[in-house]
């Protein structure tokens, strides 16, 4: 009975020591702090809606380049050789028009400091802020920015943004838009030819109703050409940018009360003790099984050795 009491006292003492040590570790490291990010549930929706608002419909010509509040960014890359489908430029070089987008989501405990750092980085790298949106009150703020950056500074700029706060999500996509540009140019040429044909028909005399219908078609064709010029202008506007879509979220840190941490530490200690007990039990069980097997093997060897001399005597 005395031995049982000693074992129980030792177990209680070990449990108490583990709980205290775990409690100290929790207070020093804040490893149990529940950190979550404002607007986290709608972060993907925010990025998706922004991309959709900027005309991203998967790269299909015509539908992609709709006029939006902020024009999309395209970069031009000149190479020495390329497929025949690419537009050939002067000097034997060709132009590849592509769209490169980095989507980043960072969180921060020091929102004001990191927001200022972000804007300083944009200024230093000579990037262009094309869209800026801030939601939430202090302690629960989200900053979303669409940034245009020169292709030769793209990688450096992205690396600098990774160092702001703590990076949570990161993605880079690159898509060739040369074919889309050619489709738009072909459509423009077709509309120009249509307009010329309609203007030729206008020179001939006809009924009032026919002339009105002709004027309507000319007007509608002109409107289509204007809309198409806006789409083509995204390529030919003189800009040579890649896009960075950057989201900065303010972290909300909640520290549990003392009783919550004490219960959590006690539970952790109990689990560790049960794990240790299970390890000791199964280790002893394996040792016992191995011992029994060795003993059986030894007895079998002795029995076989005793039978062998008896056979020789016969």
Task: Give the arrangement of secondary structure elements.
Elements: H1 2-29, E1 34-37, H2 43-53, E2 75-79, E3 94-108, H3 111-124, E4 128-135, E5 142-149, H4 154-162, E6 166-176, H5 178-202, H6 208-236, E7 242-254, H7 258-313
Parallel strand pairs: 3-7
Antiparallel strand pairs: 1-7, 2-3, 3-6, 4-5, 5-7
In short:
By secondary structure, the protein is of the alpha+beta class. Helix content is 55%, strand content 20%.
Notes on the structure:
The protein is built from seven helices and seven strands, in the order αβαββαββαβααβα. With 314 residues, the protein is an alpha+beta fold. The chain folds into two domains: 7-33 and 257-284; 34-254, no CATH class. Strands 1, 2, 3, 4, 5, 6 and 7 form a seven-stranded mixed beta sheet that branches. A hairpin with a 6-residue loop joins strand 4 (128-135) and strand 5. Helix 1 packs across helix 7 (258-313) and helix 5 packs antiparallel against helix 6.
Shape: elongated
The largest sheet is: 7 strands, mixed
Task: Please state roughly what percent of the residues sit in beta strands, choosing from under 5%, 5-15%, 15-25%, 25-35%, 35-45% or over 45%.
Answer: 15-25%
Number of strands: 7
Supply the number of structural domains: 2
Q: By helix and strand content, what is the structural category? A: alpha+beta
State the separation between the terminal residues, measured CA to CA.
60 Å
Low-confidence stretches: 36-71, 80-94
Radius of gyration: 37 Å
- Residue share in helix: 40-55%
Question: What is the average of the pLDDT values?
Answer: 75
């Amino acid at each position: 009975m005395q031995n049982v009491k000693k074992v129980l006292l030792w177990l209680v003492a070990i449990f108490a020591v583990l709980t205290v040590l775990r409690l100290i570790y929790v207070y020093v490291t804040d490893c149990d702090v529940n950190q979550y990010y404002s607007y986290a549930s709608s972060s993907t929706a925010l990025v998706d809606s922004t991309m959709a608002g900027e005309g991203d419909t998967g790269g299909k010509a015509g539908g992609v380049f709709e006029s939006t509040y902020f024009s999309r960014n395209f970069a031009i890359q000149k190479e020495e050789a390329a497929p025949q489908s690419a537009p050939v430029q002067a000097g034997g070089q060709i132009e590849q028009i592509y769209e490169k987008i980095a989507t980043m989501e960072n969180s921060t405990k020091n929102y004001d400091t990191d927001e200022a750092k972000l804007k300083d980085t944009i200024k230093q790298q000579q990037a262009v802020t094309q869209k800026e949106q801030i939601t939430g009150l202090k302690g629960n703020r989200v900053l979303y920015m669409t940034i245009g950056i020169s292709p030769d500074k793209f990688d450096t700029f992205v690396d600098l943004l990774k160092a702001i706060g703590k990076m949570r999500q990161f993605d880079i996509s690159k898509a060739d838009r040369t074919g889309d540009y050619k489709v738009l140019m072909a459509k423009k040429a077709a509309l120009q030819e249509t307009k010329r044909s309609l203007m030729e028909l206008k020179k001939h005399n006809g009924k009032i109703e026919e002339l009105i219908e002709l004027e309507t078609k000319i007007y509608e064709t002109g409107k289509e050409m204007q809309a198409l010029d806006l789409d083509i202008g995204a390529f030919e506007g003189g800009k040579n940018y890649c896009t960075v879509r950057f989201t900065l979220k303010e972290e909300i840190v909640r520290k549990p009360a003392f009783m919550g941490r004490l219960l959590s530490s006690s539970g952790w200690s109990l689990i560790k003790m049960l794990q240790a007990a299970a390890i000791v039990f199964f280790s002893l069980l394996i040792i016992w099984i191995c011992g029994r097997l060795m003993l059986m093997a030894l007895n079998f060897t002795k029995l076989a050795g005793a039978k062998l001399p008896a056979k020789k005597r016969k």
